[in-house]
Design a protein that fits this description.
single chain, alpha+beta, Lipocalin, 3 domains, 8-stranded antiparallel β-barrel, 7 helices, 21 strands, about 30% helix, about 30% strand, flat
Length: about 400
């Protein structure tokens, strides 16, 4: 019996050991393992709903509703804080509020509230396009889709930003000169109109005084008419018609172009100029090299005085490169205070003709002038060739 009891104990212990191992294995196998997450992984974000209208697709989410709308009740602005929204509409900024329903993102429901009264109600909007919605509103708690009135809106187009056109200093000076000339002409026209009105009024008074036999007042009116007509007919004194102004020449600091003595030559091998006005022979002309200044004459006046320009407008190439925007035509020079020397011109051996313009320049003035694609305006100083001689030395 003793041996049997010991055998039973050994069998029981062995059974417990085996059962414990199986239980442990089963416990280990049934323990849920933790999901392994890589950095950056997580639950996927909900994608916006897409509504198809015909062939067009409309993306529906909070961004589709937020912002400004132009509605049949005025401008409406919607602001979202998570799914809750608030805003206003119309000139009186009546309030709107509600919640965005992610289950039906193409529909927006909420309530409206008048600012200056107790009137309130509901509304329902439905997107009908990328920038449009239609809907209805109702009073109180009535269903807008059943007993509502139309309320629709469109997204206002973003205002196009027009960048200012790039303008050079020379163009700006030209525009200012044209504007001054326009204002001056307008002022003169208004002044003349005022004088004519006064003449008409005084003439009527004089006739009235004559009919009454008031000789003194009639004579006074007659004197006033004479003075008014003198003012009307007044013209500024015209300059004497001289081809070239007798004035001290200016001095300049020229960029790129070098001065040389201006003279005629018997052929193109001897020199560039075939014909030069007698008054300009021996002057200093800044024309070397002919096209080395990229078509512009850029200089600063270091001593005030008279300056001249030789301008050529023969065809020198198409408008590529935008040079035509910087070009001054003869009327542009005259609007900026330059005067053309009538009857004076220069002729080069390549058969190009150059018009002569002049003006008085003050010390400190800066010029950047252009008249053609390659050849710049050639500056001329009636200095007896002093600038050319200084360059040679």
């Amino acid at each position: 019996m003793k041996h049997i009891a010991i055998s039973h104990l050994l069998i029981g212990a062995l059974a417990l050991t085996v059962f414990g191992q199986q239980t442990a294995r089963q416990s280990t196998d049934k323990t849920p393992s933790l999901a392994k997450c890589e950095p950056g992984e997580g639950p996927s974000k909900p994608t916006p709903a897409v509504k198809r209208i015909g062939k067009a697709k409309i993306t529906c989410d909070i961004r589709s509703w937020a912002g400004e709308w132009q509605t049949n009740y005025g401008v409406m602005k919607l602001h979202f804080d998570d799914e809750a929204f608030s805003g206003n509409y119309g000139p009186s900024a009546h309030a709107v509020s509600g919640r965005f329903d992610a289950k039906s993102p193409c529909v927006l429901r909420g309530r409206w509230q008048h600012t200056n009264s107790q009137a309130t109600g509901r509304f329902t909007f439905r997107l009908t396009g990328p920038r449009t919605f239609t809907g209805n509103w109702s009073s109180g708690n009535a269903d807008p889709d059943v007993a509502g009135s139309p309320w629709s809106g469109t997204r206002p187009l973003a205002q196009e930003v027009v960048l200012p056109k790039k303008i050079t200093l020379t163009q700006l000076e030209l525009e200012q000169a044209k504007h001054r000339a326009k204002l001056k002409a307008q002022h003169q026209a208004e002044y003349r109109e005022l004088l004519n009105a006064q003449i008409t009024e005084i003439a009527a008074l004089r006739k009235k005084y004559v009919e009454r036999g008031d000789a003194q007042k009639a004579a006074d009116a007659a004197r006033m008419l004479v003075e008014l007509r003198r003012l009307t007919d007044f013209q500024p004194p015209k300059e004497k018609k001289k081809r070239f102004v007798e004035a001290k020449p200016a001095a300049v600091d020229m960029m790129l172009l070098k001065p040389a003595r201006l003279k005629e030559s018997t052929d193109k091998e001897q020199g560039r100029w075939a014909r030069v006005p007698n008054e300009l022979v021996g002057a200093s002309i800044f024309a070397t090299p002919p096209t080395g200044a990229n078509g512009t004459a850029d200089f600063k006046v270091t001593k005030g005085g008279q300056i001249y320009l030789a301008l050529n407008y023969d065809y020198q190439g198409n408008g590529s490169g935008g040079w035509t925007e910087e070009r001054w035509m003869p009327e542009d020079f005259m609007a900026a205070g330059w005067a053309q020397v009538r009857g004076a011109q220069m002729v080069a051996w390549n058969n190009r003709t150059y018009s002569i313009f002049t003006r008085k320049a003050e010390k400190g003035e800066q010029f950047r002038l252009r008249c053609n694609k390659y050849e710049p305006p050639y500056l001329i100083l009636l200095d007896g060739g002093q600038a050319a001689k200084a360059e040679e030395d």
